[in-house]
Amino acid sequence: MYGPMSDIDDIFFEDEYAFMNEQHMKEMKELEERRRKKMEEKTRNDEPWYGFDLDGTLAEYHGWKGEDHIGDPVIPIVQMIRALHRAGMRVKVMTARVAPRDKVNTFPNPYIKNCVTIQDPSTQTWALKDRWTAKEFIQEWCYRNLGFVPEITHEKDYHMLSLFDDRCCQVETNTGKILGRMPEGLAMPPWN
Questions:
Q1: Architecture in CATH for domain 49-168
Q2: What is the pLDDT of residues 104-139, one digit of tens each?
Q3: Which pTM does this prediction carry?
């Protein structure tokens, strides 16, 4: 029909406008969700954290036995990490085991995705452990002994509050003064 719009045309255009609003709202919600997730990720990366060395601090260490071998848990440190985690503090396991090196044909841990536990590892008899990297073995060990999988890293950053490590010597800020005892066989330089 030519000429002024009929009642039918008004209904058609109203429905089309409503559909466009619904589609537009859906797109806006998706965009907002993506922004929210990105902000959560950025916020999480900016949170302060506590670092715990693996070998000799979190797990017993009696010499290198391969990347698939991690010692028994050191209970006081396990309890400290669990308490920090329950309190909502960010915890990372720091270890040289995950420092970059040339290794090809590795496959991701099948029950961990972005440090979030997907499935209980004890139920995964099909896991390809012969293709895991050190990080996957550490994730499995943490899941079994801590009850969750913290971030695993070999690097510190400006958000680290403290590092618990059996090989560290604490130095007083801006003075060079060693706090505590010196490692055996290491003498302080005469200018100190």
A1: 3-Layer(aba) Sandwich (3.40)
A2: 444 555 555 544 444 555 555 445 556 678 888 999
A3: 0.62
